[in-house]
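## Example pair
The file below holds two records. Each record gives the amino-acid sequence first, followed by its structure token line.
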Amino acid sequence: MTSLLNALPDPALRSSFRRYYVWRTLDGRWRARPLTKLSPDEVAFGVLPELSADSLTQLAGACVWQTSRLNICRRLAEVQR
């Protein structure tokens, strides 16, 4: 799968998957899971443990959204300490 993602022509699209394990299911849908294990606080904040989309572009958008949501959650946790 890594070679497939490295073959993408758009570097911005490629970089959106850098923190995710990405695969395609037998029914043709794309799925992604964060490489790091999510904490219970991150899941409670709304970070999804698995993403799914019909196209690779849609999945890239979802991954970028989830990455920013995860970053916000982690920064809030740092501020609360």
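Second record, same layout:
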Amino acid sequence: MTAVEDIPTIEVEKSPDERRAALAQAVAQLEARGHTVEPRPDYQRVLVGHNPFREVLVHKRFGLRRYELVDVDKTGKVSVRDI
């Protein structure tokens, strides 16, 4: 008998439309909490590059800016990282 840990997991790649939808949903949730999309195109160009599944958000609080990178990988998993 094999243990549950021994069974390999198969990660299915999501379509580009599903990945864009996941990114849009994550950005909308963060915008509802007070984040805004980075308005400066040079920041977007340098931090995101040509990846359509990334977005840079800014959270302004008490005069300080905090930048976060929202990224969707090939399996549709959304990650938010401070940059």
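Notes on the second record: Strands lie at 36-37, 54-61, 64-72, 78-82. Helices lie at 16-32, 41-48.
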